[in-house]
Design goal:
By secondary structure, the chain is of the alpha/beta class. It has two domains: 244 residues, Type I PLP-dependent aspartate aminotransferase-like (Major domain) (Aspartate Aminotransferase, domain 2), CATH 3.40.640.10; 133 residues, Aspartate Aminotransferase, domain 1 (Alpha-Beta Complex). Helix content is 40%, strand content 14%. The protein is built from 13 helices and 13 strands. The strands form three sheets. Strands 2-10-9-8-5-3-4 form a seven-stranded mixed beta sheet, sandwiched between helices. α4 links the parallel β3 and β4. α10 packs parallel to α12, α10 packs antiparallel against α13 and α11 crosses α12. The longest helix is centred in the C-terminal third of the chain and has 20 residues. It is globular, with a radius of gyration of 22 Å. It binds pyridoxal-5'-phosphate. The site of pyridoxal-5'-phosphate has 12 residues, from α3.
């Protein structure tokens, strides 16, 4: 007899999630090929067939990051764990780290530095603007003992893209290492780890890679490995200590933790899809769908938060039009169209919406669904709209901007 104390009050049966369209700041829609990869038989994490797959996964990630770094692998955990992995390994007590903050995710980096016993020198820029390289250089002049510069490449809280190449050049001139958050940029915006000489980078599976959440691709240069090996104090986290994790992801394959095998199949498949499409082609697709969505949104009179020059194609932050109940719009999109869009964060809560066009979600069908749904909901709620013109504006962009400029990778 089981105890009634542990029996649920209502009958619980299999969970069937509704089929949504995800156009928020992440997660994005998962490609059906990726979902089915996840449903394949579970293997032991030391099974030779599985470890062969891990090797392929590492080389696919090197392609995505455009790097030859040997230390390129997915961390078992969301993007936030990838972030912590960089900081706990690279920051020793007393180390000075310049952290650029132009949105939510920069603040988290500051927390990380402080929790590692480091000293964070904060370079602030307004939310919605990119990191200003001149301010970083000024901070370096004032703090010549700085060891690391950390910044977010693509700020998902605002939709601003920072100039990672220039920021890394500055870091090298001042003999500093770099930690780059590429959670939202990887796969969606040009990102060249080796060419830009990035030292440590982390990303996430659920944004432009269109894989379920829970994995964080990372890559570390040889300089980072050297730094970690020469640390005077032990890395404070056992789970994230690179020296130990490498025992599993490196040659020796010793047990460290049980790798999330099925989740890793899904990342493998997502990266195969990216490789088949080709990085340049993926970047171009994100740009094209962004331009179509933008043309449609502008027919409602909406204004973008970020200047065109720094705008992320995969994350469209727009001011909410006057006289619109923003919560009600989001509620209706979800209830009536199964469509999720993102709300504003921090100071922008209630002021902006964030439309994600990430990975598999970056497609014509989603752009059209979203514009159609907004037109109907706006019109229902008493806002004057010219039905059909948002989609017509988007169509015009698709017509004028054919996707033939970049050829699809075939080999
Ligand atoms: C989503 C996101 C993160 C956090 O990733 P999680 O997978 O939610 O932990 C970090 N940085 C940026 C820029 C992000 O967009």
């Amino acid at each position: 007899m089981t105890s009634t104390a542990f029996s649920p009050t209502k009958k619980i049966s299999t969970f069937y999630p509704p089929q949504r369209t995800l156009m928020g700041p992440g997660p994005s829609d998962t490609h059906p090929r990726v979902l089915s990869a996840m449903a394949r038989p579970t293997l032991g994490h030391l099974d030779p067939v599985f470890t062969d797959m891990m090797e392929e996964l590492k080389s696919l990630l090197r392609y995505a990051f455009q790097t030859t770094n040997l230390m390129t692998f997915p961390v078992s955990g969301p993007g936030s764990v990838g972030m912590e992995m960089c900081f706990v390994n690279m920051v020793s007590p007393g180390d000075k780290v310049i952290v650029c903050r132009n949105g939510v995710f920069g603040s988290r980096m500051i927390e990380n530095v402080q929790r590692c016993g480091g000293v964070a020198v904060v370079v602030d820029d307004n939310w919605g603007e990119p990191v200003d390289p001149q301010k970083v250089e000024d901070a370096l002049k004032q703090n010549p003992d700085t060891k690391i510069i950390a910044f977010v490449h693509a700020e998902t809280s605002t939709g601003a893209l920072s100039d990672a190449k220039t920021l890394c050049e500055i870091a090298q001139r001042y003999n500093c290492m770099t930690i780059v958050d590429a959670v939202t940029s990887l796969g969606g915006s040009p990102l060249l780890v080796d060419e830009w000489k990035i030292d440590a980078i982390y990303s996430g599976s659920q944004k432009c890679l269109s894989c379920p959440p829970g994995l964080s691709p990372v890559s570390f240069s040889d300089r980072v490995i050297e730094l970690v090996k020469n640390r005077k104090t032990k890395v404070q986290s056992w789970f994230m200590d690179l020296n130990l994790v490498l025992g599993y992801w490196g040659e020796t394959r010793t047990y460290h933790h049980t790798a999330p095998t099925n989740a890793l199949y899904s990342l493998h498949e997502a990266l195969v899809i990216l490789y088949e499409e080709g990085l340049e082609h993926s970047w171009a697709r994100h740009q094209r769908n962004h331009e179509a969505l933008k043309a449609g949104l502008e027919t409602f009179g909406t204004k973008y938060l970020v200047d065109e020059e720094y705008r992320l194609p995969q994350l469209n932050s727009v001011y909410i039009p006057d006289g619109v109940d923003e919560k009600e719009v989001r509620r209706r999109l979800l209830a009536e169209y199964n469509l999720e869009i993102g709300a504003g964060l921090g100071d922008f809560a209630g002021k902006i919406w964030r439309f994600g066009l990430m990975g598999y979600s970056s497609k014509i069908d989603n752009v059209m669904l979203c514009l159609n749904a907004l037109e109907t909901v706006f019109s229902d709620m008493g806002k004057k709209v010219d039905i059909g013109s948002a989609q017509a504006a988007a169509h015009k962009v698709y017509e004028e901007n054919a996707l033939n400029a970049v050829s699809v990778r075939t080999s």
